């Protein structure tokens, strides 16, 4: 009896035995339990029963007694289908918006430009790329077009064939890119000159294109190709058989250019002859009495005087313009003031949209009286067209965001996250927003930097728009909750962009929202870009991934406590 | 001294689909479907064991997978996916039960006291010996929310004591107590099974 009692005292309690089989005891206690159960029948039986109970529980719960309900089996399928439907609609709407944008906005503009003497197809191509700068632009344009097509095709494949994954779509894009790169390009001879002062002497003939940069550039000789110049002061008194692309403080033409002139300059004076069209961005443009332009003149400048002979149309966005010369075609002028002198002769209709009524001399020879329209400042909120355009713009932004989010999902998600760091993003946004264009313009002033400068400006512009999309996504997250997955994020972006656009059309303060959002988003993008380019620091920390301690009940090869 | 677990290594019959996870994270619908098809049956069974009705289990499974779409980025790829999945599921089911205040009806008793009644080893052995899996499942249905949840987490999805403590919101030291009390509850249900089956649920 007493012996039995003693033995009973020593019996292990159920808790200890359970913890033992669950391997929750420390090694010393485990060894004790192990030794005891070898001696004591009762405890060994209890231990075995507990183990059996564990097994029974596991078996009972694991046994397949119910198949997956059909509602659950269909769940994924249904969810995916409904998503596809929604995205199809969003994509369709966005595409419609862009189409409307194109037919309603871009095409009329092109039409207008064509009327003004530009017989081309692409606005950008006409302004910058066509022929003037580099023959390779032509193939570059083809490349861009092919790239755009391949991108669209890749996106289409991504959207409509779920079997093709994004990786494959990107691979397609790159394959297209490489194919285009591999296509043979026509080589062209080019001559470069770079000096403090570049002079092409009177009897000098350059049989190719000439790229020249310097403080003072004089062309007295003949250039058989195109002339691309950047400098403080540019004077062309010789003969250029091709086009002239110029970026300079002052541009003076006394000689002859058979092709086009495109340029921007503080001060432009045209005394010579231009065979084709002239496009100018400048402070002051003087088209002299002796000057002659075969094609049209398009100008964006502060002050302009037209005394020479213009073969075709005039398109001008100016502060003040005086016309005393001869214009063969129509004149379309938007600006502050228009004076038409008695000696002026205009062959086509004259349209003037400006702040002040035009001053037209009764002696001027005009094909028809000047059609004047007071320049409207601000927005006409009563016009439904305005709202239609707002919808179209929102759709365009959504499409833009959709493409960017689909192409760079992790970058976009990171940018949205960065935008949450309000101070840093906004500060950096303002810095980049103002700093980059200045840097780009400086880069443009050098011939080599021209492409980089233009590309940077284009990127900057794209980043501004993308910034708005990023802020839209963030606003969407505020409203609909945080997400880090792509498509829910895109959904939030769509909602947010609509809201941000609504804010931007508020009278008087809307522009504040617009630029605030754009700079803020741009800051967020810059933060991500900065982080991406930052070298990975902390070499001291081991790169071995964290491995969790083994759970106490793992089956494979764990040490037994006993 | 190892408890053999039929048909599983770490957690019920699941291989680690790391590639599918990586793709699902980027929003690949195909990969997502793959993950769903692979894991939905196991998660449904988990919910079926942890929750009182079949409808609850269906709802919970759907909700868990919808939640998962957002949560997938939080998953640490160096750890077991199925273990993580069970953790998410356990949290969800326990939240669901707690919201319905189910845990209050049976578990008002003090959690931190070790049950004092000591079973007779041979009687217990006999009881376990005689019961079939189906009887155990029926008995499980009669347990309180916390007891059942704890048993499911431990013996179905093989979660660690830490994970169980985390999911149930108890201190780790008391996970053993919760499990032991759950076993006692189960034994009571098993003993009274025939009577209860005849007389309906208590």
Brief description of this entry?
Chain A has 562 residues and is α/β, with parallel strands linked by helices. Helix content of chain A is 50%, strand content 22%. Chain B has 2 domains: 18-100, Orthogonal Bundle (Rna Polymerase Sigma Factor, Chain: A), CATH 1.10.1740; 109-199, Winged helix-like DNA-binding domain superfamily/Winged helix DNA-binding domain (Arc Repressor Mutant, subunit A, Orthogonal Bundle), CATH 1.10.10.10.
Describe the structure.
The complex is a heterodimer of chains A (562) and B (202). Chain A contains 14 helices and 23 strands. Chain A is of the alpha/beta class and 562 residues long. Chain A folds into four domains: 58 residues, no CATH class; 52 residues; 182 residues, no CATH class; 150 residues, no CATH class. In chain A, strands 1, 2, 4, 6, 8, 10, 12, 14, 16, 18, 20, 21 and 23 form a 13-stranded parallel β-sheet that branches. A ten-stranded parallel β-sheet of chain A has the order 3-5-7-9-11-13-15-17-19-22, with no helix packed on it. In chain A, helix 9 crosses helix 12, helix 11 packs antiparallel against helix 12 and helix 12 packs across helix 13. The radius of gyration of chain A is 37 Å and the shape is elongated. In chain B, helix 4 packs antiparallel against helix 8 and helix 7 crosses helix 10. The relative contact order of chain B is 0.12. The radius of gyration of chain B is 18 Å and the shape is elongated. Chain B has eleven helices and no strands. Chain B is mainly α. Chain B folds into two domains: 83 residues, Rna Polymerase Sigma Factor, Chain: A (Orthogonal Bundle), CATH 1.10.1740; 91 residues, Winged helix-like DNA-binding domain superfamily/Winged helix DNA-binding domain (Arc Repressor Mutant, subunit A, Orthogonal Bundle). The interface between A and B is large, with 70 and 73 residues.
